[in-house]
C-alpha cells in the first residue's frame, strides 16, 4: 500500500515536472481539443491538450493550462502572433468545451468540456473579462445544468445567447457521474439575463461531436448543425450522422427542420471536425467550409476541406481537388472565420503522424482563404489582416451559378425543400442589429482611424455569430507545409513527400490524460476505437520537417514581454483599453 502510494507520488511529481518550465509558445509542438473564439481583433485560445517538442521524446498529452491571445494585426511568419495571458489556476482546463463571447460587453464565457486530470468540479460558469483581464465566476444559477463535453455550440451576438447542442455527460465532466450519456437537448445561456435554459433538440436522438454554426438568414438568424455521432433508432449504438442530413434551427420561430443535402461528391461521415460560415455579399449563397475530422469507427480521419452551400444545399469539395484524402488527417481542431473572408484552422491531433510538430513557428495555425483572394489565387494562404470581403470562389459558382459577388441561380435543394417555411426563411437576409454594451466598456486606445477600423471590425463580428466551433481533429501541419514550402523553396508540394506516415501506437494507462483523455467513444455506444495502425514507417517527408525551424528568439521574447505588460495590477483594465477606465462594473442585469 505504502509502496504504491509512493509510486503514485513519484509518478505524479514526474508528470508535473514534465511540464515544468515549459513555455507554451517556445516549446510548442501541437495543440488539440482546445477552445477558441475571436473578439474584436483578437483570437483567444483556451484549454485543450498540448504536446511539447520534440514529440519523439515525449508523446504525452499535457493539459494546456495557459490562456493565449493571438493578435490579428500583428503577424509572425504570416499568422497572428500569440501572447500568453495571465490565467487563473482555478479555471478548469478542459477539452471539448466552448467559449461563448459577448463581443459587446467584452466577456468570454467558458462552458462545458472534460477534465484531463483529476475529478471534475461541480459546474460553475467561469468567464473571462477582457477589459480587466480577470477570470470571474458568474452567479448564474447552475441547478440542473451539467457540464457537457464535445457538443456543438455557437454564440449569437445580437441576442446575447450561447447555444450548446448535444454532447456527452461522463465522469470526466460531471462529478460522480457513471457512464457516458449522449444528450439530445440544447442548452441556451442568456448572457444578459445570466440564466440557462435547457430546451428540446430537433428530435429524441442524442448527438455529439458535430458542429453548429450561425447564418444571418431568416427572421432572426439560423443555426446549422452537421456531422458527428447520433444515436441509433433501434439500439444503444452511436452511429454517424449522415453529412446529407442537415439540422436547421430557426432562432426567431424556435423551430427545428431537417433538410437533405446533395452533391456530386459528399464528404464521408465524420466527427470532431471544425467549420466556419461565410456568405455572398448579396446573400444569394451562405457557405459553410469544413475541415478534417476523425473517422466514425475505423479510419485515420480526414484532412480535406468541403463546402456546404445553401440554400442550394449542395456539397462541394474544396481541397484537395481530386478524390484523395489529404495525407495528414487530423481532428479536434478549431476553425475561426475572420471578416467573412479567411478561416484560421488551428491545431489538431494527427493519428497518423506521431513524430512531427504542427508548424511550431506559427503555433499550429493554418489559413484557408475562403474566396482565394490572395495574389496566387491559392486556397491555403497566409493570414491577411486587410482582407475584409468574401468573393464566392469558382468552386461554388460553377455549382450554384452567379459570380464572385453573388447572384447564385441554384437556390433550392436538389430534392426539394423539407418544408415550405425553410425556403421562405432562406430568402430573407437577416441583418442583426449592433447590440450596445450593458456595462461601461472603454473604447480601445488609438486615434480616429484606429477607432473606425475597430468599429468596422466590430460590425463584422456582430454580423456573424462569433464562432467557437469545436470539434474534430484537424491536422494543419500539412497545409502550413504547403504554403511555407512554396514560398521558401519554390518547390511543388506535391504528393511524393507526403506518403510517409507513422501510426499512433496504442496508449497505455500511464497517460496523464487518463483513460478517457482522448474521449474514445464509450464502449456501450459501440464506438470503434481509433484503429492503431501498423508500425511506424520511416522516411518522414522532408519538407514537413523543414517547417520545424525554430523562430528567432526575438519573437518569443516579445511575446513574453507583451504578456507581462498586459498583466494588469490590481484589476486595472488592460492597456489597450486606455486610461479612461470606468469603475469596475458588476455583471449587467438583463434590461429586457
Ligand atoms: C481567480 O478568480 C477568482 C474569481 O474571480 C478570484 O476570486 C481569485 O482570486 C482568482 N485567483 C487568482 C490567483 O487570481
Ligand atoms: C447576480 O448578481 C447581480 C449583480 O450583483 C444581481 O443583480 C443578480 O440578481 C444576481 N443573480 C443571481 C441569479 O443571483
Ligand atoms: C438538459 O435536460 C436533460 C433532461 O432533463 C438532462 O438530461 C440534461 O443533462 C440537461 N443538459 C445539460 C447540459 O445539463
Ligand atoms: C444498431 O443499429 C445500427 C443501425 O441503426 C446497426 O448498424 C448496428 O449494427 C446495430 N447494432 C447492434 C449491436 O445491434
Ligand atoms: C495512415 O497511415 C496508414 C499506415 O501508414 C496508411 O495506410 C493510410 O493510408 C494513412 N491514412 C491516411 C488518411 O493518410
Ligand atoms: C494615427 O493617425 C496618424 C495620422 O493620421 C497615423 O500616422 C497613425 O498611424 C495613426 N495611429 C494609429 C494607431 O492608427
Ligand atoms: C493524445 O490525444 C489524442 C487525441 O485525443 C489521442 O489520440 C492520443 O492517443 C493521445 N496521446 C497519448 C500519448 O495519450
Ligand atoms: C470581474 O472581476 C474583476 C475583479 O474583481 C472586476 O474588476 C470586474 O468588474 C469583474 N467583471 C465583471 C464583468 O463582473
TrEMBL record:
GO biological process per UniProt: glucosinolate metabolic process
Region described as Disordered: spans on this chain: 435-456, 493-592
Protein name in UniProt: Kelch repeat protein-like protein
Pfam families per UniProt: Kelch_KLHDC2_KLHL20_DRC7
InterPro entries: Gal_Oxase/kelch_b-propeller, Kelch-typ_b-propeller
Coiled coil segments of this chain: none
Signal peptide per UniProt: 1-18
Species per Swiss-Prot/TrEMBL record: Massarina eburnea CBS 473.64
Keyword Transmembrane helix: yes
Residues passing through the membrane, by range: 461-485
PANTHER family listed in its UniProt record: KELCH REPEAT PROTEIN (AFU_ORTHOLOGUE AFUA_5G12780)
Biased amino acid composition, Low complexity: 435-445
Keywords: Iron, Membrane, Repeat, Signal, Transmembrane, Transmembrane helix
Amino acid at each position: 500500500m505504502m509502496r504504491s502510494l509512493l509510486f503514485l507520488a513519484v509518478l505524479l511529481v514526474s508528470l508535473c515536472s514534465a511540464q515544468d518550465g515549459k513555455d507554451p509558445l517556445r516549446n510548442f509542438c501541437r495543440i488539440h481539443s482546445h477552445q477558441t473564439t475571436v473578439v474584436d481583433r483578437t483570437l483567444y485560445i483556451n484549454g485543450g491538450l498540448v504536446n511539447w517538442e520534440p514529440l519523439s521524446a515525449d508523446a504525452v498529452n499535457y493539459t494546456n493550462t495557459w490562456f493565449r491571445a493571438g493578435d490579428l494585426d500583428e503577424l509572425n511568419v504570416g499568422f497572428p502572433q500569440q501572447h500568453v495571458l495571465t490565467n487563473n489556476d482555478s479555471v478548469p482546463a478542459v477539452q471539448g468545451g466552448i467559449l461563448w463571447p459577448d463581443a459587446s460587453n467584452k466577456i468570454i464565457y467558458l462552458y462545458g468540456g472534460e477534465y484531463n486530470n483529476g475529478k471534475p468540479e461541480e459546474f460553475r460558469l467561469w468567464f473571462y473579462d477582457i477589459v480587466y483581464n480577470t477570470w470571474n465566476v458568474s452567479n448564474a444559477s447552475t441547478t440542473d445544468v451539467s457540464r457537457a463535453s464535445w457538443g456543438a455550440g455557437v454564440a449569437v451576438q445580437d441576442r446575447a445567447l450561447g447555444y450548446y447542442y448535444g454532447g456527452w455527460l461522463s465522469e470526466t465532466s460531471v462529478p460522480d457521474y457513471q457512464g457516458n450519456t449522449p444528450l439530445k437537448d440544447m442548452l441556451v445561456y442568456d448572457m444578459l439575463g445570466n440564466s440557462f435554459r435547457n430546451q428540446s433538440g430537433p428530435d429524441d436522438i442524442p448527438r455529439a461531436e458535430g458542429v453548429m454554426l450561425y447564418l444571418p438568414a431568416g427572421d432572426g438568424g439560423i443555426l446549422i448543425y452537421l456531422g458527428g455521432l447520433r444515436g441509433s433508432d433501434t439500439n444503444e449504438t452511436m452511429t454517424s450522422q449522415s453529412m446529407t442530413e442537415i439540422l436547421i434551427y430557426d432562432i426567431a420561430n424556435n423551430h427545428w427542420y431537417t433538410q437533405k443535402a446533395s452533391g456530386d461528391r459528399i464528404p464521408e461521415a465524420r466527427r470532431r471536425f471544425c467549420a466556419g460560415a461565410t456568405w455572398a455579399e448579396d446573400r444569394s449563397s451562405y457557405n459553410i467550409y469544413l475541415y478534417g475530422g476523425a473517422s466514425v469507427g475505423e479510419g485515420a480521419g480526414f484532412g480535406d476541406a468541403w463546402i456546404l452551400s445553401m440554400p442550394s444545399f449542395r456539397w462541394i469539395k474544396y481541397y484537395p481537388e481530386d478524390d484523395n484524402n489529404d495525407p495528414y488527417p487530423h481532428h479536434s481542431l478549431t476553425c475561426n472565420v475572420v471578416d467573412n473572408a479567411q478561416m484560421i484552422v488551428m491545431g489538431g491531433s494527427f493519428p497518423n503522424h506521431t513524430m512531427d510538430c504542427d508548424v511550431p513557428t506559427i503555433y499550429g495555425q493554418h489559413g484557408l482563404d475562403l474566396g482565394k483572394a490572395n495574389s496566387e489565387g491559392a486556397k491555403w494562404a497566409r493570414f491577411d489582416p486587410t482582407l475584409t470581403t468574401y468573393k464566392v470562389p469558382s468552386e461554388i459558382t460553377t455549382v450554384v451559378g452567379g459570380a464572385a459577388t453573388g447572384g447564385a441561380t441554384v437556390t433550392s435543394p436538389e430534392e426539394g425543400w423539407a418544408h415550405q417555411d425553410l425556403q421562405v426563411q432562406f430568402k430573407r437576409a437577416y441583418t442583426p442589429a449592433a447590440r450596445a454594451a450593458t456595462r461601461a466598456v472603454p473604447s480601445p486606445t488609438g486615434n480616429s482611424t484606429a477607432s473606425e477600423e475597430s468599429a468596422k471590425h466590430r460590425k463584422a463580428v456582430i454580423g456573424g455569430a462569433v464562432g467557437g466551433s469545436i470539434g474534430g481533429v484537424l491536422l494543419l501541419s500539412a497545409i502550413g507545409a504547403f504554403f511555407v514550402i512554396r514560398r521558401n523553396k519554390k518547390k511543388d508540394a506535391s504528393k511524393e513527400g507526403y506518403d510517409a506516415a507513422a501510426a499512433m501506437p496504442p496508449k497505455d494507462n500511464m497517460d496523464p490524460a487518463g483513460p478517457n483523455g482522448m474521449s474514445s467513444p464509450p464502449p456501450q455506444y459501440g464506438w470503434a476505437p481509433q484503429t492503431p495502425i501498423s508500425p511506424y514507417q520511416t522516411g518522414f517527408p522532408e519538407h514537413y520537417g523543414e517547417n520545424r525551424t525554430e523562430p528567432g528568439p526575438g519573437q518569443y521574447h516579445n511575446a513574453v514581454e507583451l504578456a507581462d505588460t498586459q498583466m494588469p495590477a490590481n484589476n486595472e483594465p488592460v492597456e489597450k483599453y486606455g486610461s479612461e477606465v470606468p469603475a469596475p462594473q458588476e455583471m449587467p442585469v438583463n434590461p429586457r
